[in-house]
């Protein structure tokens, strides 16, 4: 069985009030890369055995209390060479320390059994903490979190939503089977993430973002069974740089406007990323009966390697409750015989999530299907100000050509061999 592990550097800032100061626990001095000295509070000082078999949950909570209620900024340490077993727990604030660094140099593993997700929807969570920095070894190694996801995928929970997330840095949880959920937060920085799950594992999104302002994700690897990153309603100023995605379902904005709800996403920039053997590349998807907008979005310097559907805007997304092998499973778009065919959608009701000001710049590489670009936009709203600038995608199959299909799109293109946009 493959394990789900992640190595990450995560900064999460919440708007909370501070309490009175108090101090508990012990402080240690260690050398960090020969340059700086940091004060650490180690979980082993509070009784953690960290042999991979003994429950270390209470020791972790005691160490957290010492760090959280400390006078000065200190670092919480999971030591190198240790494997600590944790049951579901929450590292809760608010804390008196103005900044806390959570350093994972060893390993943390989940129990090898399922539990009642209604009582514990997350394995590890951080709640109401200001100035939290969680550090691992990044893509170079050092520090792992093994959630033992295979025990959930093979259980009665596999086909429903009763599976926990690994680590939601948020006040509420909406995505029980993703790895990281960011909700209702501000000024989050993630880097050095290495997250893996089998390509056929159900609904294992890498990072889901909802109602967040200011998220920076960079220099990371996400290989899962669903979206590498999903950007949902209420999110703005999202920057994704240096991401390797694959396998998985690519990078998605949406779906937005489900059940007629108002949705908004804006100021999103995806840059210098590679998507390899993904079901989709970069995708925007909105429900046709929703309201709101997705705007000011750019995809720049993106390399596709055998992605099945490299570039997609689907403004008529439908929920038919069926998961197919390709990306248009819940859409009124269908692909038959290698040709794009669009089907008439509801019009005249004035509803829909507006998609505008989207730019694709320097997108190159190979497509595993004949459909390199698909813009299926609503008949009433259309997609506006869509720009294709140096989009050059070829077929991964020798002797095959790729195509681009547009419906109700207004925009422009520059030096793009693969384009269907008409200049207006």
TrEMBL record:
Annotated keywords: Cell wall, Cell wall biogenesis/degradation, Glycosidase, Hydrolase, Secreted, Signal
Gene3D superfamilies assigned to the protein according to its UniProt record, in alphabetical order: Single-stranded right-handed beta-helix, Pectin lyase-like (2.160.20.10)
SMART domains on file: PbH1
One of the Pfam families matching this protein, by short name: Glyco_hydro_28
Top-rank taxon: Eukaryota
List of catalytic residues: 249
Leader sequence segment: 1-24
Subcellular localization, as worded in the UniProt entry: Secreted, Cell wall
Entry's family note: Belongs to the glycosyl hydrolase 28 family.
Name of the molecule in the record: Polygalacturonase
Name of the gene encoding the protein in the UniProt record: A10p028700.1_BraROA
